[in-house]
Design a protein that fits this description.
Elements lengths: L5 E5 L7 H9 L2 H6 L1 E5 L14 H20 L4 E4 L4 H6 L7 H9 L5 E5 L4 E4 L9 H4 L2 H14 L10 E4 L14 H15 L4 E5 L1 H9 L5 E4 L2 H12 L4 E5 L5 E3 L17 H15 L9
Helix pairs in contact: 1-11, 7-8
């Protein structure tokens, strides 16, 4: 690319820390040296009461995302980095999507997407995202898991991993102990891994989750497929909180995000740390520079 990429930054819920960290990230000298930030959000975020869930704030966050996606799809910006939204505010505004991932899939028409948390120390892709824990077993189908594995294998080369080694975590303690502690490993996870392996994907498992993430951090695997939200996010945030970047795999546009929430408890105090958003913008700029085949993006 013979110019700095234009990175759209959506300010997130205006009642949270989003506007503050957006301003800090957009004004950061290192950020401005590698890209041209373009901010999306309400013109006057001070009109929203800090730290309070409202339908108006949810709607404002949604509208900023819609505008950014429209510009990304039209080529007016090269990627999007998003500050956090509030799921309760989205619901209060009557919006049916529980998070960015689902909304972005809807706006872009993406058939399959996955949430990945990327850090130098650890990379984790979630097979299920915003579903109650009790619904995970029924949501974690073989087809869904195969899609997640295939998408991870296809997308990770963009991150400097041309032949990614993947590992899948078990759902149950000790990865089910051959059916003694649950049947999902035998009935769903192992068949999905086997099917993907026959397609040439380097994927192994299921492995007990209590040791798998440590193995990945030591370099045995390039990424871990986690069965549910907290199984994957707890280890990432433990080792790289504030430095990890949320990336939506499978979209026709580039989207990165922070690894934290709206932090209503400190909103408006001027103490919010923009580090994760800065890292998200950095990664978005890097991904925007070249396509998978290393040809420049237009």
């Amino acid at each position: 690319m013979n110019r700095r990429p234009r990175i759209g930054i959506t300010a997130g819920d205006p009642a949270g820390i989003g506007p503050e960290i957006t301003a800090k990230a957009a004004g950061n000298a290192d950020v401005r040296s590698i890209c041209e930030p373009v901010v999306y959000g309400p013109v006057q975020s001070d009109l929203f009461e800090r730290g309070r869930v409202t339908a108006a704030a949810g709607r404002a966050a949604y509208e900023a995302i819609v505008r950014a996606v429209e510009d990304a799809r039209a080529g007016r910006i090269d990627a999007i980095a998003t500050a956090p939204i509030n799921k309760e505010a989205f619901a209060a505004a009557g919006l049916p999507w529980p998070g960015h991932t689902e909304l972005l899939a809807h706006l872009t028409g993406a058939r399959r997407v996955a949430m990945m948390f990327y850090a130098d120390a650890l990379r984790v892709v979630l097979a299920t995202v915003h579903v109650p824990l009790r619904k995970v077993p029924e949501t974690l189908t073989q087809a869904r898991l195969e899609d997640t594995i295939e998408l991870s294998a296809a997308e990770l080369p963009r991150f400097g991993l041309p032949a990614p080694k993947l590992a899948v975590a078990g759902l149950n303690p000790h990865a089910g102990e051959h059916g003694l502690l649950g049947a999902e490993e035998d009935d769903v996870i192992t068949p999905a891994i086997a099917a993907c392996a026959t397609r040439g994907i380097d994927v192994r498992g299921p492995f007990p989750a209590d040791t798998l993430f440590n193995r990945a951090m030591k370099g045995e695997f390039d990424a871990v497929i986690a069965c549910y939200h907290d199984q994957g996010l707890i280890p990432v945030k433990l080792v790289a909180f504030g430095r990890a970047v949320n990336v939506t795999l499978g979209l026709p546009i580039i989207r990165t995000s922070v690894d934290h929430g709206t932090a209503f408890d400190i909103a408006g105090r001027g103490v919010a740390d923009p580090s994760s958003l800065i890292e998200a913008v950095r990664l978005a700029a890097r991904l925007a520079t070249f396509r998978d085949d290393n040809t420049p993006r237009r």
